[in-house]
């Protein structure tokens, strides 16, 4: 089977391409800019194509003969729908590395279309949201009566320009949480709590994360809050978050911010990634006060993403799930995260 990395000239796209080569695979590299795609593909000896997602005919030609697309060109709010359209027309499987709640919701809304086309749609096949989604499914299985789910992470290491651009868009929307089964807008930093990460307890603050969408579909739990331990985030108050959100919504701030990110941010190098790590925590509770928690320790989030994308591509080629829109755990099971290099699970514990 033939698979493609679209957005191969971006930071994460190049990581996926290099890891694919290390594992003896030869994906087709693709993107919008011929010079940038060729600069990545030619020295690696990989086939390449260029097409603009704004041109449906060009997309159809670009996807001809492709069985699986690993879509790595963000922000996904601007690129996902067109690539999903193309994959459904081609009958190809689609996966991406988004963490954007609205993108998850829009992809999941196309479940029946994907079933009819015989395609699997798998948004969030990287750090956003494989570790959190799989842990959520693990604790939910241990506590079927759960009504609330908290998910938290902390990570060291750097960040890529694409991730920062997506975060800039997300900041304009404000906080998001799943409340009584619905995705609702809440203030940024609306909840704070202490989390017993494997390395020790940390104060975490709520922020919008993809699991507000995905974990609901993976677990059926109606109340979901996502948290992170990030320097400075715990000092954000509701008043300052409202002012920041209003500022972030302006066209000028979005345009200038993305331009600055594109000019100066390149993403962490190999040495920085080799020193980096991530910890994830999940806790499900029910109305009787019972709870189940689990945690994991993993490598750098970008290395984890590249590994996860490759393993997801392989699974879609060899043993794809039932066509339709999936989360990582509904596609491959909660134990999918155990397959990833360098991941160690702290098994679920009851209280």
UniProtKB/TrEMBL annotation:
Residue intervals of the Saccharopine dehydrogenase NADP binding domain: 4-121
InterPro entries, per the entry: NAD(P)-bd_dom_sf, Sacchrp_dh_NADP-bd
Source taxon at top rank: Bacteria
Short name of any one Pfam family annotated for the protein: Sacchrp_dh_NADP
Record-given protein name: NAD(P)H-binding protein
């Amino acid at each position: 089977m033939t698979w493609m990395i679209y957005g191969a000239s971006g930071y994460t796209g190049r990581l996926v391409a290099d890891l694919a080569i290390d594992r003896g695979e030869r994906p087709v590299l693709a993107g919008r800019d011929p010079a940038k795609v060729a600069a990545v593909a030619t020295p690696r000896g990989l086939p390449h194509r260029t097409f603009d997602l704004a041109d449906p005919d060009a997309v159809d030609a670009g996807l001809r003969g492709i069985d699986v697309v690993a879509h790595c060109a963000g922000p996904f709010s601007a690129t996902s729908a067109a690539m999903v359209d193309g994959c459904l027309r081609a009958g190809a499987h689609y996966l991406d590395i988004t963490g954007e709640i609205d993108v998850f919701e829009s992809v999941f809304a196309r479940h029946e279309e994907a079933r009819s086309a015989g395609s699997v749609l798998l948004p969030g096949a990287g750090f956003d949201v494989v570790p959190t989604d799989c842990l959520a499914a693990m604790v939910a299985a241990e506590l079927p009566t759960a009504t609330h789910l908290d998910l938290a992470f902390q990570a060291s290491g750097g960040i890529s320009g694409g991730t920062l651009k997506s975060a800039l868009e997300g900041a304009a929307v404000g906080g998001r949480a799943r409340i009584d089964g619905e995705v609702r807008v809440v203030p940024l930093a609306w909840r704070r709590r202490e989390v017993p990460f494997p390395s020790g307890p940390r104060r975490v603050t709520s922020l919008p994360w993809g699991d507000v969408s995905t974990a609901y579909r993976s677990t059926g739990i109606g109340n979901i809050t996502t948290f992170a331990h990030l320097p400075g985030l715990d000092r954000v108050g509701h008043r300052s978050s409202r002012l920041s959100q209003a500022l972030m919504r302006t066209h000028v701030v979005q345009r200038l911010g993305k331009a600055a990110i594109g000019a100066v941010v390149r993403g962490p190098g190999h040495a920085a990634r080799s020193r980096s790590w991530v910890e994830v925590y999940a806790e499900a509770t029910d109305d009787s006060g019972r709870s189940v928690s689990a945690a994991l320790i993993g490598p750098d989030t970008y290395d984890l993403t590249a590994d996860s994308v490759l393993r997801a591509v392989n699974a879609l080629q060899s043993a794809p799930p039932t066509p339709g829109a999936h989360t990582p755990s509904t596609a491959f099971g909660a134990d999918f995260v155990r397959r990833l290099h360098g991941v160690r699970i702290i098994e679920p514990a009851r209280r």
